[in-house]
Amino acid sequence: MKQAIKFLTILPLLLFPVLLLAHGVSDADQEILSGGGLPAYIYVGAKHMVTGYDHLLFLAGVIFYLSGFRDIVRFITVFTIGHCITLISATYLGIRADEHLVDAVIALSVLYKGFENLGGFEKLFKKSSPNLLLMVFVFGLIHGFGLSTRLQSFDLGAEQFLLKIISFNVGVELGQVLALIPIVFIITRWQSQKSYKAFYKAANYYLIIAGVLLFAYQMYGYFYPH
Fold first, then answer.
1. CB atoms < 10 A from the CB of 141, how many?
2. DSSP state of 23
3. pLDDT digits over 152-178, tens only?
4. Mean per-residue pLDDT for 75-83?
5. Are 203 and 13 in contact (CB under 8 A)?
6. Gap between the Cα atoms of 85 and 97, Å rounded
7. 34 contact partners, CB below 8 Å, separation of at least 6
8. Which of 32, 57, 81, 83 could form a disulfide with 144 if both were Cys (CB 3.0 to 4.6 A apart)?
9. Reported pTM
10. CB neighbour list of residue 1: distance below 8 Å, 6 or more residues apart
11. How confident is the model at residue 205 (pLDDT cuts 50, 70, 90)?
12. Cα(100)–Cα(88) distance, rounded to whole angstroms?
């Protein structure tokens, strides 16, 4: 079991360069959207969320903090409402920001969740952490804005504009559900094991490390664009 924990701790670091390449927009996706109609937007939205490692890392951090399935559904729903608001509204209104800066803030949300899960506020600041439900909603808004910047990187055209945005959003929700099923299963099943405490600690330290690395990567991309 100890070897499994060590492997799970090292594996994300080994996959980090691959993950960076997986998350984004591509010419292939643009071709799919151009010729596939509304179902294509659902597909690309789902694909984007499944490869959206920064979004999923944050959600994994939220799930680590929760103990009951009802709480998991409640918090994921709040996060979903938050990112739906900004994804749809920002895209429809054409509100944009540099994608590297938005993704840098999303990286900080990953760092924040790992720090909170490890009791960072109590240990470092001698105070309780902010209301988790509120913070999940706020970060949901930010993550949704990040999804919007990705969607606006495509040529959406003028026809059925709102329906395309909604279809992409539906795909995001489907992708989120598909990606979260194994994450929730692994975490909730592991909670009953003796090794869970070590796994919890190692995984949340990884969230902090991943947040720092992702933040540095995005800031490098902002100051030194390709």
1. 18
2. S
3. 999 998 899 999 999 999 999 999 999
4. 94
5. no
6. 16
7. 155
8. 83
9. 0.87
10. 193, 195
11. very high
12. 20
